[in-house]
Specification:
Rossmann fold; 4-stranded mixed beta sheet; Helicase, Ruva Protein, domain 3; 11 strands; 531 residues; alpha/beta; 54% helix; single chain; Zinc Finger, Delta Prime, domain 3
């Protein structure tokens, strides 16, 4: 008899709640309910594809009918467990709502539900993709779902819970399945490969996990393809199987964008196209590449959110140092616009080449200046908040600004400081300035970590709980360098000040307070505070 190959996601489908990966909020609750015999009559499992909804439905069906359950888990060995696994138990019914979505199908289900189970304790109905039912089918299901016979258990599964009527969701106990973390998926892939006696590198497992986007089924399906290609799976094997661009090309394209080398960027795209790389997939990968750069520039510990090797993380960090955040956001916006056009049916190669031209800045006078207009609008909004007129700069004045000496600093009075603080607005580029300060002096830049800054008139007021940064700023060379960095980024010369002090009480305040209290108590005191 011909024996068919069993795909990995079916072969390694968990048979117990303890084997389900990445859904403890679901499995722990279900096990407790089964152990305490507090079963609901209807369950609603919702979440993205491949996260374990159908798997948990089958385990739940076994657990409630198992002859020898153990702490809420099915034993997996009794006739009921084995029968449900091989599909011979007719009391557990799986219904695909995508193809059985009519009112007649639900009426037939209602009639069957009235009969007692043939051999199991519960008659279990697993309705997959339940959001595909018609309105009339939902209405036909309502009464039975609300008050089913004691021997009936409904399990509804869907990827689009927002399409379900509120009358359905309110009658079910809802469980939300989360996307599985890349590291959990990679660990599971390594286990499967070990069982299959296949070699896989940690980087390859992480890459498959990243492509799967939180779906274990997708990850196992891609692993199946990779195993068909090679018995030793590396990162390169996964890339060739999935049709991904090599990461070196992503770094090379990004370097070309940094250096505004349009010819190099377009040639790289042309080479990838000749090697049959899908341009939409390349656009998606490049978007993910710039997302990684964005996270590195904005998050304190980006490694926790990035599924990349240590070597790639080092390369990404180096590239991130050369970008400013607004341009990174502009790149992501342009790439996403290109992806939308590709999905609308335009020539993908031309769309990708146009995107490279835009990102490298080689735009003619008739080009798309939407990104530049957005930045100008944002700057005008900031200038309006400062209540100053925007300066008009040409190339000559820009050179003069760079080479001209900074204006002298005049320390503000106490009254002036109060006024400056009352008019201060948040300084949005401060974190970028701190990163540049670190390049000048590691100790000075580190002392500014966690600080914020405000702009008021001609002053940048720094707010920090770390007094070390203010002690370092007492040195003239440090102060001058920080002002130079601020001017290079903002195009304006500012003086530096402190936004708040640990104790802003005036020295005489305590004495005045004491005299007032003594007078109130009737103690004769000569008031010398006015002398």
């Amino acid at each position: 008899m011909l024996k068919l190959y069993r795909v990995l996601y079916r072969k390694y489908r968990p048979k117990f709640f303890a084997d389900v990966i990445g859904q403890p909020q679901v499995t722990a609750t279900l096990k407790n309910e089964i152990s305490a015999d507090r079963l609901a009559h209807a369950y609603l499992f919702t979440g993205s594809r491949g996260t374990g909804k159908t798997t948990c439905s089958k385990i739940l069906a076994k657990a409630v009918n198992c002859l020898h359950p153990h702490n809420g888990d099915p034993c997996g060995e009794c006739p009921m467990c084995l029968g449900i696994d091989d599909g011979s138990v007719t009391d557990v019914v799986e219904i695909d709502a995508a193809s059985n979505n009519g009112v007649d199908d639900i009426r037939l289900l209602r009639e069957e539900a009235n009969f007692t189970p043939a051999e199991a304790k519960y008659r279990v109905y697993i309705i997959d993709e339940v959001h595909m039912l018609s309105i009339s089918a939902f209405n036909a299901l309502l009464k039975t779902l609300e008050e089913p016979p004691a021997h009936v258990l409904f399990i509804l599964a869907t990827t689009e819970v927002h399409k379900l009527p509120a009358t359905i969701t309110s009658r079910c106990q809802r469980f939300d399945f989360h996307r599985i973390s890349p590291r959990d998926i990679a660990a599971r892939l390594s286990y499967v490969c070990q069982q299959e006696q296949i070699s896989i590198t940690h980087e390859a497992a992480l890459l498959i996990a990243g492509i799967a986007d939180g779906a274990m089924r997708d990850a196992l399906s891609l692993l199946d393809q990779c195993m068909g290609r090679d018995s030793s799976i590396t990162e390169d094997t996964v890339r060739k199987t999935a049709g991904l661009a090599d990461k070196n090309h992503l770094f090379a394209i990004t370097d070309a964008i940094l250096s505004k080398d349009t010819a190099a960027a377009v040639e790289l795209v042309d080479g990838l196209h000749k090697n049959s790389k899908d341009m939409a997939r390349l656009c998606e990968e490049l978007t993910g590449h710039f997302r990684s750069i964005m996270l590195i520039k904005t998050i304190k510990n980006p490694a926790d959110m990035l599924v990349v090797s240590a070597d790639d993380f080092t390369k990404l960090s180096r590239q991130a140092e050369q970008f400013n955040l607004p341009f990174v956001l502009h790149c992501i916006d342009v790439l996403q616009s290109a992806m939308e056009k590709m999905l609308q049916g335009v020539n993908r190669r031309i769309a990708m080449e146009m995107t490279m031209v835009k990102l490298c800045g080689s735009l003619s006078q008739e080009g798309d200046f939407s990104a530049l207009e957005q930045r100008i609008a944002a700057l005008e909004k900031q200038l309006a908040a400062f209540k100053v007129n925007p300066p008009v700069l040409n190339s000559t004045s820009a050179v003069q600004l760079k080479s001209s000496p900074l204006p002298p600093v005049k320390s503000p009075s106490v009254e002036d400081m109060d006024r400056l603080r009352s008019q201060a607005v948040r300084f949005p580029e401060w974190q970028e300035i701190v990163e540049h300060i670190k390049k000048y002096s590691k100790s000075l830049g580190t002392s500014f970590e966690g600080s914020t800054a405000y702009i008021s008139g001609k002053y940048v007021l720094v707010d920090s709980k770390n007094d070390v940064c203010f002690e370092l700023l007492r040195k003239a060379e440090h102060r001058t360098e920080v002002r130079n960095i601020i001017r290079q980024i903002t195009g304006k010369a500012y003086s530096l000040g402190r936004y708040s002090y640990p104790d802003e009480t005036k020295p005489d305040d305590a004495l005045i307070q004491l005299i007032s209290e003594l007078k109130t108590a009737g103690v004769p005191v000569e008031d010398t505070s006015k002398n």
